[in-house]
């Protein structure tokens, strides 16, 4: 890690300007909070970087994506957060190649001794035995079904899924057990599994939510560079709806002065077949704060300070909290929707748009009564 990868102690911003990497959300390997040392560039007298024909220093080739297989001991993650609609989740992958710069899951790579920056989107961990472990967990005596969300932390249909098919295995397993599930994704790859999802939806066992942060293709390319283009996600919503799968749209996160087309996204998603919607505001835990600030300096230097000030406004931070370097409040009561004047205005915009478009008029209720764990082991039920 050279000086461009370290963080300055006062601001948390990169110590030196780093050029954006095409096709990547982050261009630096931000040091994580558990690292014990940091490295800085030092001139050892052997000369500087090689210079190309254009007279500029040659840059190393762009980093490639590495997928590492991991054997896990648990698949289900229990959730007791009152501001999240599901109690259990399954994530077949850790890290996400989509590279969304705002992803709240980035700091989890710190637990792997990897950077929440570039490593998060180039060092992907695939839980190769997730289906077998999940089968064991849902067939244990005393297990009681509740909605399982697939892909709550990292996208379950990111590029690695095309070959590994771990998400498909999870959907097959839960479907065989009659266990309700909800998927959330930015990928058109979910259409591959319509042969599984459509029959499950007909039995009220499956729903899908597609995230569309903006309709602006140029913005999407730098905000979430390896996710499906906005128009392609709209086609996915249409394909799901036409197949009879209940589909909703997530317009999250809302980033002030960056993605300002929430109403247009909601209308386009409704026209494509979405019948429900939700949103969250931008939240910046741990290392995500300096990562996002660096992204702003790369792509929107003229408005970076304005964006961050409004993010802090949306979370209702006091002057003292701002002076301490805080960017959001992490308490359950306000972290998702914010608080204060600007959060209220955003809430009103969303509510009025949904009312006008007829979104969220009916709640999608999945059926918990069809759960038959014996079917997972190939046994037949008497009922």
Automatic annotation (TrEMBL):
Every Elp3/MiaA/NifB-like radical SAM core domain range: 86-309
Residue ranges of the TM segments: none
InterPro entries, sorted: Elp3/MiaA/NifB-like_rSAM, MJ0683-like, rSAM, rSAM_sf
Record keyword Mitochondrion present: no
CDD domains in UniProt: Radical_SAM
Gene3D superfamilies cross-referenced by the UniProt entry: 3.80.30.30
Keywords assigned by UniProt, alphabetized: Iron, Iron-sulfur, Metal-binding
NCBIfam families tied to this protein: rSAM_PA0069 (NF033668)
Protein name as catalogued: PA0069 family radical SAM protein
Lineage: Bacteria, Pseudomonadati, Pseudomonadota, Betaproteobacteria, Burkholderiales
